[in-house]
């Protein structure tokens, strides 16, 4: 009987180890690092042709693409047959280098040529 009491006491002492303090969260460090204006969040200055569509103030690349899509949808420039194609009006034709239509996948390339 003495053996079972000793075994039970040993089990309880091994399971009640002191908890280690929690390490600082990496997400907080990433959040602080992401607040700087680098990468996708870096404000870019649009060219005069692009400024006619999105405005003159510097914007992040994501906001520029969003404003172009807002313009496309407001003017009804998305092709009705093939939704992946964007039809150019006078403002967009200048951005699209004279092309009447481009693929939505080429939109990022067009924006890259018109920002600093």
UniProtKB/TrEMBL annotation:
Superkingdom as given in the UniProt entry: Bacteria
Pfam families named in the record: SWIB
A GO molecular-function descriptor: isomerase activity
Boundaries of every DM2 domain copy: 39-116
Region called Disordered, residue ranges: 1-48
Keyword tags: Isomerase
Ranges annotated as biased composition (Low complexity): 1-33
Annotated protein name in UniProt: DNA topoisomerase III
Originating species: Chitinophaga agrisoli
Record lineage: Bacteria, Pseudomonadati, Bacteroidota, Chitinophagia, Chitinophagales
């Amino acid at each position: 009987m003495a053996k079972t009491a000793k075994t039970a006491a040993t089990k309880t002492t091994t399971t009640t180890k002191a908890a280690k303090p929690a390490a600082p969260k990496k997400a907080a460090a990433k959040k602080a690092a992401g607040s700087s204006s680098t990468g996708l969040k870096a404000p870019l200055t649009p060219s005069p042709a692009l400024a006619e569509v999105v405005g003159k103030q510097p914007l992040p690349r994501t906001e520029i693409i969003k404003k172009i899509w807002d313009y496309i949808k407001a003017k009804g420039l998305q092709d009705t047959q093939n939704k992946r194609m964007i039809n150019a009006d006078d403002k967009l034709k200048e951005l699209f280098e004279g092309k009447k239509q481009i693929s939505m996948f080429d939109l990022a390339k067009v924006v890259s040529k018109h920002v600093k």
